[in-house]
Each structure stands twice: as structure tokens, then as C-alpha cells.
Fold:
Amino acid sequence: MIKAILFDLDNTLIDFMKMKKASCDAAVEAMIAVGVRLDKQNAIKILFELYDKYGIEYNKIFQRFLTKINRKIDYKILAAGIVAYRKVQAGLLEPYPNVRPTLLKLKEKGLKLGIVSDAPRLKVWMRLTELQLQDFFDAVVAFGDVAERKPSRLPFEKALQELNLKAEDVLMIGDWPERDIAGAKKLGILTCFARYGNPEAKESEADFEINNFSKILDVVEQIRNFKYDNQKS
Structure:
């Protein structure tokens, strides 16, 4: 019988890419309005190529962007981009539908809950706090708490240590098969793929798959019933 559930954060609990794309659109429009000489489509393409290179959480992305296209940083343009980004980000950062009521029901079932995220420690806590989700979790492991990102074993081992549980007692849910699912499987943790957060992914190789966050409740019942039936037989 599982005793805890670990969650990835971005695109599992939080619709991160919706916020990211809208915030970047606003930033690019603002920078074009005050002097960037690129059309929006090309500017967005360059920006996300830089995110691919430096990481989606890289906090000096607009400096890199301006250096790449102009070979210098114009602080008037930089400020316009950052301000526009932050305004949209604040309004669009939100959990997926049914996250809060589902977390409440999981806690009512006596399950411990944890986060295993590749995002930097402060950003994880800021997102959880902004969305008032911070008190749901018994363990929060982010980059900075351990030296490696998923699919390394280290973040999962740290979470198990904080929960004081064994791998067979835990279910991991995430949207990234190559990181969330593969990493958890290295330790023998049961896995559930959040397809709603990554609908274009092919085979996840997870033990379970859901298209809505609330369906995690059905997965929990399936696991518990399966364990119970096995014990009876």
C-alpha cells in the first residue's frame, strides 16, 4: 500500500509552459516597441533557442537575447522586457484544474505528499507560496537541495529520506518521461505519467497514466485494491 505521492511541479501541478509562453510573448512585444529590430516570430524563436541552451529557468535570458541580437545590452529595452514579463507571469501562474481539492482528498486519505523538482529551490518555494500550496507538502526537494537534476537518483533518494519511507511505499507523478518517470524507476518507485502536462509525448513507460489531475485519486485506489487483492490471495 502506498504511503506517499511525489509530484513534479512545473507542468504537473502548475501549468508552467502556458505562463512561460505568454510572458515571453509580452516581453518580446515590449522590447520590439522600444527598439528591438526583429519581427516577433523570429525574436520568440531566438529567445527559446537560448532557453534550450541555458535552461528554462535561466534568469538572465533577456540579457543573453539582447547581446545575441545587438552585441550589447540596452537597459531601456531590457527593463521593458523584464517588466512586461513579470506582469504577465504574476497573472498567469496557476495550478491545473482540480489540484487543490485533489490534494486535500489525498491528505484526507492519510497520504504524505512531496515535491521533486528540477527548478531552483527559491523558485519552487515562491511558486508554491504564491499559489498557497506550500502547506500541503511534507517534503520539497529542488535543485540546490541536491547537486543533480532528474533523472539522477539523488533527488528521489533525498525525498524518500525526508519522508522516511522506502521506494515501494511511494508513487511519483510527472510530465517528463525521460526525467520524472525514468528517474523514479531507477529506485523502484511506482510511476504515473501526467499526460495533460505533455500531450505530445509518445510512450511514457510509466505504470499509470492520467489526463486530468483529479484522476490520481483513481490511481491510488487501483494501487491499494491491487495490493489488498494480492495480500488476500
